[in-house]
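Whether sequence alone determines local backbone shape is best considered at the level of individual chains. When preparing material for the folding task, we compiled for one chain both its residues and its backbone structure tokens. No coordinates are needed to read the tokens, only the vocabulary itself. For completeness, the protein is quoted in full, as a sequence line and a line of structure tokens:
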Amino acid sequence: MNRAVKLAALMAAGVSGAGAAHAQVAVGGSIGTTGAAVEAQIQVLPGLQLRGGYNYFQYEADDTYDGINYTGDLDLNSIGAFVDFHPFGNGFLITGGAYFGEKTLDLLATPANSVQIGNQTYTPAQVGTLGMAADLEDTAPFVGIGWDSTFENPGIAFKFIAGAMFTGSPQVNLTARGGTLANDPAFQTQLAQEELNLQDEINDYEVYPVVQAGLTFSF
């Protein structure tokens, strides 16, 4: 959050330095793979804009990892700060920046049949409930392209952006509770091995696709 505040201050300083003659302001909203977003935009020079906003996203996840089905929530609530460049003097833009804030995946699994944990097979009664938490980096760089005609004419305009958020490798934590072997050292050793297996599997998810569409109003 401190990074976001500092970046917002730099954005404000940039606006002051550019001069009031160039400044235009817009507000807007969008929906997409980062959830629902509210944003503010400032044009500091023709073809150069600063943009920031808040994104709220909660997704009910249902995925299978290492042969075990997990259900839970993916939370991507974040603050975004970006620089938009219009190289051709029209709505086409190239954008870059970052998303700041906690990004977490919290999942639970209660096996109904025997499952393999680490290198051993256990019954549902022995396993109990598995909890998997994966935390992404608090700061996730972003690059993208899109179309935004916000400052071409005053009033309502359409905006579309597509790109990639680089979240880094999630840090996985696996726990088990309620099973008959919850406190068994041998089971805990296999649980630690299962955590490593999950880490290897989830390491492939380092890039999160971002697609947003929305409306803006400039004044």
